[in-house]
Design a protein that fits this description.
The chain has 2 domains: 2-200, 2-Layer Sandwich (c-terminal autoproteolytic domain of nucleoporin nup98), CATH 3.30.1610; 284-487, Rossmann fold, CATH 3.40.50. It has 15 helices and 18 strands. The strands form 4 sheets. The protein has a 7-stranded antiparallel beta sheet with strand order 2-3-4-1-5-7-6. A 7-stranded mixed beta sheet has the order 14-13-12-15-16-18-17, sandwiched between helices. A two-stranded antiparallel ribbon has the order 8-11. The longest helix is centred in the middle third of the chain and has 16 residues, at 180-195. The N and C termini lie far apart (67 Å). It is of the alpha+beta class. Helix content is 29%, strand content 23%. α6 packs across α8, α7 packs parallel to α9 (236-248) and α10 packs across α11.
């Protein structure tokens, strides 16, 4: 197996410090399945390439490393396999062993470059991407900001037997601007997704590994369900556990945790009654505060809404909060483009356990926000919470036509990140969006200009507010901004 990683940033040989591997020497280590080597085919100031080669003994894979038994008595087909050559979970494990410090985001000699996004390119040779090949590659790596190029490593499995069909094996090039740490974690998680057959026994600890290595990008990946299921070899209890944990991950950086001041917490007496203890409210994440703000905007609407729709409902958290927090609602709907997200929403809402009367109060359906849809009409209020920034700016006008011109709810609530506040989070590199899938993030002035323009064009008044604690010292506002549109007349 062979993987190459090329850096074309200034002082490109700093790649050696970030990977903790000296370009002037060969690094070699034994693994449970063979030998992994790191070497540098080129090392110059303008361009530096590190190569990871993993040499596997296919006979040892069958017989076992101790040479005793294993599967040696099995059919000859066990020895005829692409496992020693096509990138797989073997390569992922080798990445973890050879570059563990780099994947942890540490560099003693070049700490200032650990968080630097630099032009990087990776080549994976002979990757078995299956019949969907290039499309699957784009679906997995495209949302992370990579340009993807895939050339067939061989047009046919065997030229002598064309009836066997294509090889589905590709030489894959990935290019983009990332930190070295991010790139390595992307590869570590996604290579086994193509392999779809890990070589070692695993259990619950693999869920921890997936969530830990996917932190900061996997929770927002549009294909996270497929990634989790294939990474965990379709072991549904493990995959469901991983998806549940990913759904809990906060959308904003980890600094985004707010703890209310102690004086506001209620006093709680112990069972003996002679000691008063002050109980602090649990830390409240910004995601939860956004949901609370949106639900409150629905609750205080006049006239009181009866039918509400959450556009881009995801796993159904806001739908659940609406059903619990707004009395008098006759129906709550959720729409999302992702079928897998809707399945998770249905599980969260326990739709399969509801009685007929309760079941009539909620509906979930798949749809797109850039195409007119008659199903969106007839609702008093609509929510677009953390949705618009996932659309390309040139497609926002289509969303506006669908919602404000086509559906025309009386009240529309829109929340989106405040780009100015990003500077508050030191863990977020300058110029980087909060999520890999964000197409833009607006300042307060940009959001206000857009909102006022939409309101004027479609007969809505609009009021703006913030969600989260304000940056009192820097004047950057709150982390999230909200617009409430009310139809005139």
């Amino acid at each position: 197996m062979l993987l190459t990683l090329t850096c074309t940033a200034p002082n490109a040989t700093d790649l050696g410090f970030l990977l903790h591997k000296n370009p002037a020497s060969l690094f070699s280590t034994e693994t449970s399945f063979g030998t992994a080597r790191v070497f540098y085919p080129e090392a110059g100031d303008d361009r530096c390439t590190a190569a990871l080669q993993v040499e596997i003994d296919p006979v040892a894979l069958v017989r076992g490393r101790n040479g005793k038994g294993g599967q040696a008595s099995g059919p000859l087909a066990q020895y005829v396999s692409d496992r020693p050559y096509a990138p797989s979970s073997f390569l992922s494990v080798a990445l973890g062993q050879c570059f563990s410090t780099a994947m942890g985001g540490r560099s003693k000699e070049r700490p200032e470059r650990v968080s630097e996004r630099m032009p990087l390119s990776v080549t994976l040779y002979a990757l078995d991407a299956g019949p969907d090949g290039p499309d699957l590659l784009r679906r997995l790596f495209g949302p992370l900001g990579y340009g993807v190029a895939a050339e067939p490593a061989a047009p046919l499995l065997d030229d002598r037997f064309p009836q066997w069909g294509p090889a589905n094996v590709y030489n894959v090039s990935l290019t983009g601007e990332h930190t070295v740490q991010a790139l390595l974690t992307h590869l570590y998680v996604l290579i086994p997704v193509f392999d779809n057959a890990k070589h070692y026994f695993f259990g619950d600890d693999e869920v921890d590994k997936l969530v830990r290595r996917g932190e900061g990008w996997l929770e927002s990946h549009p294909e996270k369900e497929m990634i989790a299921r294939r990474y965990l070899r379709y072991k549904r209890p493990l995959a469901d556990a991983a998806l549940a944990r990913l759904a809990e991950v906060e959308e904003a950086p980890s600094d985004d945790v707010e703890v209310p001041a102690a004086p506001d917490a209620p006093e709680v007496m112990t069972a003996r009654g002679d000691t008063a203890e002050r109980t602090l409210e649990s830390p409240l994440r910004l995601h939860e505060r956004r949901i609370q703000a949106a639900v409150e905007a629905i609750r205080i609407a006049e006239p009181a809404p009866k039918r509400v729709i959450d556009l881009g409902c995801g796993e159904g958290r806001t739908v659940e909060a609406l059903l619990k927090g707004v009395p008098g609602l006759e129906h709550v709907a959720g729409m999302d483009v992702s079928a897998s997200a809707l399945e998770r929403a249905a599980r969260r809402l326990h739709l399969d356990r509801l009685g007929d009367r309760e079941r009539e109060r909620v509906s979930l359906f798949q749809g797109s926000l850039v195409y007119r849809d008659a199903r969106l009409s007839g609702y008093d209020s609509a929510l677009l919470t953390e949705v618009i920034e996932h659309l390309d700016p040139e497609r926002l006008s289509a969303l506006v036509r669908v919602v404000f011109e086509g559906a025309q709810p009386r009240r529309v609530i829109v929340t989106t990140p405040n780009a100015e506040y990003n500077a508050v989070w030191l863990s977020l590199p300058a110029g980087r969006f909060r999520h890999p899938d964000h197409r833009f993030e607006w300042t307060r002035a940009e959001f206000a200009a857009w909102g006022e323009g939409v309101g004027a064009a479609h007969g809505y008044t609009v009021a703006f507010s913030g969600i989260g604690d304000e940056d009192a010292d820097g004047g950057r506002g709150t982390p999230t901004q909200m617009a409430v549109f009310d139809r005139k007349g």
